[in-house]
Amino acid sequence: MSQPCRGGGCPNRRFNERDTLLAEPGVFATRIGASFERVARDLRGMDGLVTVTSNPVAVMTQIGGLPQASRAGERFAGPKSGAALRLRPESVAAALAVERAACGRAPCSVRFFTPEGGALHKVFLPSLIDDYAFAELTVDWGAAEDVGAAETAVRDARAPDAACWSRRGLGFHLDSLFGDGGLRRRTLLPAWGRDEAWRIDPELAVQCLGLMNEARAPVTIIVPNEAFAQMHVGALDDVRRAGDRLRLCAGDCSVSLDMAEVDEVWVTRHDERGRAGLTVEFYDWGFQCVAQITETGDDPRLARFWRRSVEALPPLRA
């Protein structure tokens, strides 16, 4: 049985899902040249969409409408409730519109991949049962768009000195995960200073989430990868541990996290327009960020409850 890679080994642990998918009998896919915004515009308003963002350790699944999306570098205004998406299109190597298989049960879908064929983000369309209607959409998505430089400009979230990162907003910190999955971010965390970022016991992080569940305190759950960061804001309905698998449920959103692949958990500070915040960050054996949990609600009492609960988590002893 294979063991998890320690010390930053196995930089690419995703299997080639793209080639595996295309090799299945009866599966037909069309390459998408249009921008994500063009695709999202056509999908917005459809009911029952299933959006999935994953990395080698965590998977977030959201059922409902298509989350509002913003690009890396744009001003970030997180939702007060429900789902949202942050993306860096430059890190997507390929996008496919996948038709319903004639002999299968999988619905039509739109999928985004890494250069190695690993899945980054998927949108399943179970309510779209008209194959002709989906084919018409794929025709419109086939042509590449001439996106202006202003639209593709991406703020370099790595430029400022590490000591100043804790005074930046949540959008800046999300953008720092793109491209390398947060590898460089993790490298810089010790340079923040012990008051701004400290490592904690992963089991204490799980217990803290259980406390948030009991208190029905709304939290923001984020599952990132090289190109997408999908998030959900709302109270946790369930925090369940089965062996190494941690499952979080909040409304129409569920997150599965393989704790056996989590090597480190850090607490970090950020500043969202003058409002101090704390984030619990999960890192795998390859030092890539696989999940983040923070608080972005409007209720100052619940914000204080989150902040005091997280600040009370003691640093891990060396």
Structure description:
- By secondary structure, this protein is an alpha+beta fold.
- It has two domains: 17-141, Heme iron utilization protein-like fold (3-Layer(aba) Sandwich); 162-311, HemS/ChuS/ChuX like domains (Heme iron utilization protein-like fold, 3-Layer(aba) Sandwich).
- The chain is built from eight helices and 17 strands.
- A nine-stranded antiparallel sheet has the order 1-6-7-8-2-3-14-13-12. Strands 4-5-11-10-17-16-15-9 form an eight-stranded mixed sheet.
- Strand 16 and strand 17 form a beta hairpin.
- It is globular and about 55 Å long.
Task: Give the secondary structure arrangement, pairings included.
Blueprint: H1 17-22, E1 29-31, H2 36-43, E2 49-54, E3 58-64, E4 68-71, E5 82-87, E6 94-98, E7 108-113, E8 119-125, H3 131-141, H4 149-152, H5 170-175, H6 183-188, E9 197-200, H7 202-215, E10 218-224, E11 228-235, E12 238-242, E13 245-250, E14 253-258, E15 262-272, E16 275-284, E17 289-294, H8 300-311
Parallel strand pairs: 4-5
Antiparallel strand pairs: 1-6, 2-3, 2-8, 3-14, 5-11, 6-7, 7-8, 9-15, 10-11, 10-17, 12-13, 13-14, 15-16, 16-17
Characteristic terms for this protein:
HutX-like; 318 residues; disordered N terminus; Heme iron utilization protein-like fold; 2 domains; alpha+beta; 17 strands; ChuX/HutX family heme-like substrate-binding protein
